[in-house]
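The records we work with from here on pair a chain with its fold. These numbers are not coordinates but entries in a learned vocabulary of local backbone shapes. To see the layout at work, look at the sequence and tokens printed below.
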Amino acid sequence: MYGQMMQQPLLISSLIVHAERHHGEREVVSRRVEGDIHRTTYGQIAQRARQVAQALGALGVRDGERVATLAWNGYRHMELYFGISGSGAVMHTVNPRLHPDQIVYIADHAEDQVMFFDMTFWPLIQAVAGRTKTVKHWVAMCGREHLPADAAKVPGLLCYEELVAAQDGRYAWPSFDENTASSLCYTSGTTGNPKGVLYSHRSTLLHTFAAALPDCLDVGAADCVLPVVPMFHVNSWGIVYLAPMTGAKLVLPGAGLDGKSLYELFESEGVTVSAGVPTVWQGLLAYVDANKLKFSTMRRSAIGGSACPPAMISKFLDDYGVRVIHAWGMTEMSPIGTAAAFKAQHVDQSPERRLAVMSTQGRAVYGVDMKIVGEDGRELPWDGQASGDLLVRGPWVISRYFRDEGGDPLQDGWFPTGDVAKISPEGYMIITDRSKDVIKSGGEWIGSIDLENIAMAHPAVAMAACIAAHHPKWDERPLLVVMKKPGAEVTKEELLAFFDGKIAKWWTPDDVVFVDAIPLGATGKMQKNRLRDQFRGYKLPTA
């Protein structure tokens, strides 16, 4: 026997339709790349999103084709979020921090048809425009008056504001299967080329419901939310979807992610909730401390991307009255999996015990199931002591990568996260290590094997291993361990210069140490665990 309820597909367009109808006057405030503060509303975003959908049709974009964005957090990017996915196309957010070679690779792999970009990235566009195979249209996200003088360097360059203005917005959002692909993000959390994670409308809507819950990001209609986490980073952790769903005021910081710029927006716009990686908050707290400032309205800060130091959690709460929501997830999880929200028994516990709970990666939000397993694949107990590989499953967890890159990633229906963790009897998860040899710097992944391959291409290098070393600002930075060829000589400076032009500049190792030998296992693989033990506590240069 089936239930007798209406069947309506969960579609991304329904979010902006709801926002227009019930929160149409609620503000969306953006710091534009043009330098000014722009104000619009959900009602106006909805209208222009329909115009975007019409413009895509005029450009010949068909259902299921990929449309790329290379942009900061701003209202135009919001319009694209809903206009692209709502029309039946697939929005592909591109991380501008990648090397141009990687951007060319993922644009070709995704078969992007159109690339929308903020003018900040004009030099990057010039570097890739002549090399991509499928992009037919390049669209500058500005008015004609802000197009560059050398616009002819990208033939057929289009102007976003002209594209939108040419449409009347009389567009009915199409209805289709909720399992239709909605957006595409590439993760660099794997070695080799980035892999695509293809979200559906259904998975995105379910994630949005969960992310807004009180025990997750805790956002409601009375809130004003500022996502510091970029819209090109796992759909801004879902905030650009949950804000219009709940009717929260949305403040988008653009490229101004320094402490001063963020603080000014927090205060002028009455921000109550924000979200970002620890590195950003270090800069904000440093600015606030140096100028003896306070937060007038800010009450909650979601921190993820990498582990948040307990000292930062304490400082936010004790000095500024801001509660930290320590969250964990990954691109393959849309991305939120856990959040460190209190249970009833924690309310009256000591500050030390409450800090211990807040310092964990949190407990699973509804929709996500997790377990830890030992080397034999058997599930380990949730006793806060046993440590094993962390596996997850759920309706917004990946089942396979785009174009089946890497084959079937699942283990008996569970996705292996690559993290090693333990889980307390209360269900709070603590990541103790990572099984993948990738480095997480300021919330962004750096592939160690890619760096090793470049180093070992140097004629003086016999073997190289890249490991994560602690950094006071970026959490982790790459440390290159090198064994030279017999009789060969190379300096640290020469090796670091060897990386120039081959990778994104911020991927370059912070330091190089030379050793007589690199430990190898029985199968000839480098034993990085031994290297990490050997160089635990290593002091990287910070100047």
